[in-house]
Design goal:
heterodimer, A: 16 strands, about 20% strand, B: alpha/beta, about 10% strand
């Protein structure tokens, strides 16, 4: 790594890198000095890495054991971990009806080595998701017929403006989400069918909102409520509509259908057998949503066919047999009558699953000119008790 | 024409774009390799054989733009071949190792022959590229290939219309390039439909899309034929929706066929079962055990004591299940016809393609049996594709389908919950910024470096939008990878955004990410300008 390679990074990025490299006193340096230090640090790291392991004469078997021990790679932490932790903290108050997500679930665990100190980390690795983008806005998303999700941010200018406007009241005011039912109307801030408030605590920046009503339109105001119940709008969301859940009450003349027929077809479509009654069908349909009959992602590792997980104590023991040997590299060797391939140096290894019983393994080598023959027959017996 | 109704089997083939030229081996690339060996090639083998034997059949298949991009990528083709060669090497060793255990020995031989045949098919017959094979089957009238949103973004949470349009348009454009025609239909990612999205489909000339059952059942006005006839959205695009009964028999882990005790057990793989030192060269280079694809056991029962797999028993079961499936569809069609007469019902049965072969090892065989049985053993049902049904019945009810998806609980919860809701803030902001720069540069004078940077921004944005990352975050496995992918793409996008704005594009770096995220070479950022 050369100093010029580092020039494209900003000082913040370099500081991040210096932190990863554990460079002490990094904040005191100028950008130029920082680059020098980083280059130097890389050089030492690479030198250490390049140094061959001290030569030690170990008996072969120990070398082999050693190989096994050193096989696993060391895992290194990657930045998403830090990010995950931060998020949990930020999102602590969860108005979600389910139990709060355990940090262990939310924090992505590093699974394999992704950063090697010997290579400059890619720019992407220095990127952290901004907590906010300097906007003042609230965005509403539909989760299902009964729930919405909102996320928002308020920038400093807006906050300052509110502080000024409200004066002493600001500190005693509460942030609120005001959820309006604006089905089939052009909303002007005052004409909603109804609304309800949700008090936001602890600096949350997103919320799950239970509206409980399918097939209605919604809009949410983020605002401040003063102790004397005055509402100051901060920002207004987009308009969304919860989906219908159930049969439409509207029929059209040309395609008139009997309710009876609808349920007959509904029963089949929902997979509850032929001609289910309306009551059965509706109930069963709700139940079917809880089943997972699509995978979302069927590739590796995502369990589709549920694995029967019974916690049971168990033990499996298998035995294998390794037959190995060596002869002249150009010889022909057969094992149990079957010709096998020799390595270039004339050695061979065969590995067999070894079932119970007696195994005769005749090994025969014939020289390339067909003159010399050698035959060895190991006999192995396995018995399981 | 004495059939009473139609069956449309729809296979949705999708994998997210996973391509890491910076690593020699990359764990997640195995998703593609496994799917090629276990699903795509076995399915193509079945389709081609049926075609050679002049069997009357037609199926619908969606091949997502990300999957198509990977299947046509020379680097991944090479990496796949290397993966397959390793597998053959392992199967060869297994033949020797299992020599004294005849049950396993037969299976090892089966795998060895299978994999060597796969290599022959992939290299000699298909010249490393599966897409032209799919195309030939479409041109022969046997497959109706439909497209999908560019990177499989879950559209109901996309927020910005430009972002939805860009996803759709990218899918359509790539389709046209690969298959030489416009797609008739589209698979909306996760069947995620939001009223109004059909207008964008209309702009692209798409005739139909597939949705989940309740999308039509809860549509308004009330659908006369339930899900057994398509409906037109106000835009004129047809919506076909899934029949749950037929879906369940294949999908359901409780009632479905794939759970039969004679079928191959997915979870017992030699990658986990065999001695570490022996299997080491065939698992992930970092030493993590993974599935290799060589599996010796049958499901056996609700037990850990698994018995060896017996291929002939499994084949017999697949035939039996195909017969059962056909019989149930006949009964279903007769019943539906009695209500819908004179209209002939259409039953839409969509599945993830990777279910066949990868999860359900006998799936391709089952499909083969089903098609043959439908040809010879009955007269009630006929296979059809949605576009052919529309030709027979061009007049259909007009309604507004309900927002829906085929995910757990039927709506957006899979992709919008505690583990993944934080991504939308960033995805939406990126889409907003993309539109901002696309508008600012919406004139023909933008070229060279700036144009490249803007196009790359569009690629990065779309890659970040893949529904797969949100899904992985929810399932809790491989989350590091999903977070990393969202971060990488948002990071690349954000840096480019700043560079374009400040007019200081770092060409070397741009080139390096163009090489990594190299899909959609013909993308045009102006699609975001609207």
């Amino acid at each position: 790594m050369e100093k010029k390679d580092l020039a494209k990074f900003t000082k913040e990025e370099l500081l991040e890198l210096a932190k990863k490299l554990k460079i002490v006193g990094r904040y005191a340096y100028t950008k130029d000095e920082l680059m020098d230090k980083i280059v130097k640090r890389y050089k030492t790291l690479n030198k250490n890495k390049a140094k061959p392991a001290p030569e030690r004469k170990l008996p072969r078997i120990i070398e082999k054991v050693k190989k096994v021990i050193t096989r696993g790679r060391k895992k290194k932490e990657v930045s998403p971990v830090v990010l995950g932790e931060k998020r949990v903290e930020e999102r602590a108050p969860r108005p979600y009806w389910e139990a709060p997500v355990e940090p262990a679930q939310t924090v992505p665990q590093p699974q394999k080595e992704e950063i090697s100190v010997a290579v400059a980390p890619a720019r992407e690795e220095m990127f952290t998701f901004p907590r906010a983008y300097g906007d003042t806005k609230i965005v509403l998303l539909v989760r299902d017929p009964w729930w919405l999700h909102a996320y928002w941010e308020i920038n400093r200018e807006k906050e300052e403006e509110l502080r000024k406007k409200l004066g002493d009241l600001y500190a005693r005011s509460k942030y609120l989400l005001r959820v309006y039912d604006i089905t089939d109307i052009i909303f002007d801030g005052t004409n909603a069918h109804s609304y309800f408030d949700i008090e936001i605590n602890g600096g949350a920046d997103n919320w799950y909102i239970e509206v409980g009503k399918p097939n209605r339109s919604w809009c949410v105001d983020l605002g401040l409520l003063t102790p004397d119940k005055k509402f100051f709008l901060v920002c207004r969301s987009n308009v969304v509509r919860t989906p219908r859940f159930g049969m439409s009450e509207i029929t059209d003349e040309e395609w008139m259908s009997l309710e009876e027929d609808y349920w007959k077809l509904f029963g089949v479509a929902g997979g509850f057998g032929l001609g289910s009654s309306p009551v059965q069908a509706k109930r069963a349909f709700k139940r079917r949503f809880k089943e997972d009959i699509s995978s979302g992602a069927p590739w590796s590792l995502f369990s589709l066919l549920e694995k029967e997980k019974e916690r049971k104590f168990w033990l499996v023991v298998n035995t294998e047999l390794i037959v190995y040997g060596a002869t002249e590299p150009d010889a022909k060797v057969t094992v149990q009558g079957k010709l096998i391939k020799l390595r270039n140096d004339g050695t061979f290894t065969l590995r067999f699953a070894l079932p119970d019983g007696m195994q005769y393994i005749p090994v025969e080598a014939v020289s390339s000119d067909g003159v010399d023959k050698r035959k060895v027959t190991p006999v192995v017996s396995r018995r399981t008790e | 024409m004495n059939e009473k109704g139609y069956l449309a089997l729809v296979l949705h083939a999708h994998l997210p774009f996973v391509r890491h030229p910076e690593y020699e081996d990359f764990l997640e690339e195995r998703w593609l390799f496994e799917a090629i060996t276990e699903t795509y090639i076995p399915l193509l083998n079945v389709f081609e054989r049926l075609l050679e034997e002049n069997m009357d059949y037609c199926l619908t298949m969606s091949i997502t733009p990300t999957l198509a991009s990977m299947l046509t990528d020379p680097l991944l083709q090479q990496k796949y071949l290397r993966n397959l060669e390793k597998l053959i090497e392992l199967a060869d060793k297994e033949v020797t190792r299992t020599r004294w255990q005849s049950d396993f020995h037969q299976l090892a031989l089966m795998y060895y022959h299978r994999f060597t045949h796969t290599r022959y098919v992939f290299v000699d017959k298909y010249k490393m590229n599966l897409i032209p094979v799919f195309r030939r089957l479409q041109e022969a009238g046997r497959l109706e290939i439909i497209t999908c949103a560019g990177t499989h973004a879950y559209l109901p949470l996309a927020l910005h219309r430009q972002a939805v349009r860009a996803q759709i348009k990218t899918g359509v454009d790539l389709y046209q390039k690969l298959f030489g025609t416009r797609p008739k239909g589209i698979w909306l990612p996760e069947c995620g439909y939001n009223p109004g999205d059909d207008e964008i489909l209309k702009e692209e000339g798409i005739k139909y899309f597939i949705m989940d059952t309740h999308g039509i059942l809860f549509g308004s006005p009330r659908p006369k034929y339930g899900v057994y006839a398509p409906c037109y959205c106000k835009s004129g695009v047809a919506a076909f929706s899934r029949d749950m009964e037929s879906s369940k028999s294949v999908w359901s882990s409780i009632e479905g066929y794939p759970g039969d005790y004679n079928y191959r057990e997915f979870y017992r793989d030699v990658g986990y079962d065999l001695d570490y030192e022996y299997i080491r060269p065939y698992i992930n280079p970092d030493g993590t055990r993974v599935n290799t694809g060589i599996k010796y056991y049958r499901i056996t029962g609700k037990t850990d004591d698994k018995q060896p797999y017996v291929p002939s028993w499994a084949t017999a079961k697949a035939a039996e299940h195909a017969g059962n499936f056909m019989f149930n569809r006949e009964k279903q069609v007769e019943y539906l016809y009695s209500i819908m007469h004179p209209r002939k019902p259409i039953i839409i049965s969509p599945y993830d393609a990777e279910l066949y072969g990868h999860w359900w090892f006998e799936g391709p065989q089952w499909l083969d049996f089903l098609i043959r049985k439908i040809n010879f053993d009955q007269k009630t049902i006929k296979l059809i594709t949605p576009s052919r049904y529309l030709e027979i019945y061009p007049k259909n009810q007009v309604l507004t389908p309900s927002m829906s998806s085929w995910g757990w609980k039927g709506y957006s919860e899979v992709w919008l919950e505690g583990s993944n809701d934080w991504i939308y803030r960033h995805l939406h902001k990126a889409a907003e910024r993309m539109a901002e720069l696309a508008k600012a540069n919406n004139h023909p004078h933008v070229d060279g470096l700036k144009q490249r940077a803007l196009n790359q921004m569009a690629r990065e944005l779309m890659l970040a939008q893949s529904s797969d990352w949100a899904f992985i975050l929810k399932t809790g496995t491989f989350t590091t990878y999903a977070v990393r992918r969202i971060r990488d793409h948002i990071a690349r996008f954000t840096y480019l955004y700043e560079q374009v704005k400040e007019n200081r594009i770092d060409e070397g770096w741009l080139k390096s990410i163009e090489d990594k995220d190299n899909l959609f070479p013909e993308i045009n950022y102006r699609i975001y300008a609207e």
